[in-house]
């Protein structure tokens, strides 16, 4: 739940009952959007500054992510700044309410006189803020205010978020690497690495009974197209418990494992079912191949949308769409129907448990965080996903599995391809571009 401080301002000469009524209505509307508010109003420009002192005292020591500066009528700029300067590190919403129609005439308290006097001042003072104003006769912009508050909550969570990475730079890829200091400076997420040896050592201490419990309670929920070997089921359960223990101990909300050159090559076990269990049972965001910025993008999307934020990678570009799928797994939250799996092997790699579930379609948002010279950018696009034609990746044992994926229609495939930043993109359902834009504006990340 987003927690915000709600400050309602109005000039001392405006009828106080009008200011109170407008602020109360605005605050109630935000609470109906699910927000938790610390409410202080009316705040006027009284000569002795009693209201200003009252507002500062009411917020001191309180925990909140957003400062909502609600302008219910004309207010001299100094009265607002004398309060906001005490909380200048907080992202703010400058929200101007509006007048109303009464007996065929428009009645106004000059709300936008107040906001237009303040907007440039907030900019000059270096505040992080969004300017929102209401219009007579149209619905109030309550949802936009709540959306920005959701983004500020996500930014606050990211500042102290942690992800874990077993190994580093799978397949010696370039685009999955992370620069720790710049990531900490801009986003806040800490990506901590640990050795795959730790997973192997912890796995050896997992008992048969513990493995069986995971098989009975979790893996048994999956629909197997063909029976899997007992050894594979035990490895999936045991490695899941080993990695989960590390994540629990260190507070990781995201995890990536060294896949091709690690789990598959060194431990002889493709990690798809491990990722499935970590996503579905432990509630973590997961991505393979040591994709650090993929994990960070997932945390952003999850915090903003409360969705699973799965990754997809690109296989083909068409004239008006792209084929995006995965050669391993998707979380249960995006599966249409049963979570369906089968034993399969790819090339010279060991047989593993492969997810072949059907992926939900519909309107979606696809995005990817990237970095260049210490600056961060978000590439984002809207699309519509549908079940693709029957397709396979060459190299799987025959009959080749139908990999999870979507054919995603885009307005401009060439423009997307011209700016594509990695093979892995993170998807969420619905149009979440506004939420992502708000978060990026708070963090100082440029949208592409």
Summarize the structure.
The chain has helices at residues 16-32, 50-59, 77-84, 111-124, 142-159, 180-186, 196-204, 208-217, 230-250, 259-264, 272-280, 292-305, 413-419, 433-443; strands spanning 3-9, 36-43, 66-71, 92-96, 100-102, 105-107, 129-133, 162-166, 190-194, 223-224, 254-257, 285-286, 311-317, 321-325, 340-344, 352-355, 362-372, 375-386, 405-409, 424-429, 446-447. The chain has 448 residues and is α/β, with parallel strands linked by helices. The protein has two domains: 3-158, Rossmann fold (3-Layer(aba) Sandwich); 160-447, L-fucose Isomerase, Chain A, domain 3 (Alpha-Beta Barrel).
Describe what you observe in this structure:
The protein is an alpha/beta fold and 448 residues long. It folds into two domains: 3-158, Rossmann fold (3-Layer(aba) Sandwich), CATH 3.40.50; 160-447, L-fucose Isomerase, Chain A, domain 3, CATH 3.20.14. Helix content is 36%, strand content 25%. The protein is built from 14 helices and 21 strands. It has helices at residues 16-32, 50-59, 77-84, 111-124, 142-159, 180-186, 196-204, 208-217, 230-250, 259-264, 272-280, 292-305, 413-419, 433-443, and strands at 3-9, 36-43, 66-71, 92-96, 100-102, 105-107, 129-133, 162-166, 190-194, 223-224, 254-257, 285-286, 311-317, 321-325, 340-344, 352-355, 362-372, 375-386, 405-409, 424-429, 446-447. Strands 13-14-19-18-17-20 form a six-stranded antiparallel β-barrel. Helix 2 (50-59) packs parallel to helix 3 (77-84) and helix 8 packs across helix 9 (230-250). The protein starts with a strand and ends with a strand.
